[in-house]
Amino acid sequence: KAGVTQTPRYLIKTRGQQVTLSCSPISGHRSVSWYQQTPGQGLQFLFEYFSETQRNKGNFPGRFSGRQFSNSRSEMNVSTLELGDSALYLCASSPLSGYEQYFGPGTRLTVT
Amino acid sequence: QKEVEQNSGPLSVPEGAIASLNCTYSDRVSQSFFWYRQYSGKSPELIMSIYSNGDKEDGRFTAQLNKASQYVSLLIRDSQPSDSATYLCAVNGGGGATNKLIFGTGTLLAVQP
Questions:
Q1: Which residues between 18 and 77 in chain B have a beta carbon less than 8 angstroms from any beta carbon of chain A?
Q2: N or C: which end of chain A has fewer CB within 10 A?
């Protein structure tokens, strides 16, 4: 089975711009979660989608949003980028609630 | 108090020794617990999951869970230099109803040849 894929792998944006990241889960997995990893804050939960519905949201500003499509693929969007948004953005997929999650390779976002 | 706590290390062990990694969590309703390994510049890789009290073994890895003490540990037997990485403890923060994982800051393990 193919693993979780994320595109693009690297991205450089300017402060104030917006960005959209994409995640394709493992085939058959209906849950997709997004995380932000930074050296200072570690791995932090952004939000989770299950069957196209946002089921849980972390403590991030409204500039961070996401959605899930009927084929379980998910996108996250960050608007009005700030320097502090520079991070590794990871998505993880899971077949069930409370079950194992498998991470994609991540998208490295740099905001200048 | 942080929700998931780990000793940041580095934990240095000689090749062939047992590495012991520890994690405590604060939310008593947590039901799912995971250990991830992350090499520098890579994404986290799931190595162990544990859901009930006791030990769970998989090859050289053993996860131990004690819900009464809110404690999870990972033992790596016969440590190899390739095991050198950051080990992240993760706890499901939704009581099983969601997939929100709360991560510790990770323990850096260095296996000396």
A1: 31-32, 34, 36, 42-46, 49
A2: N
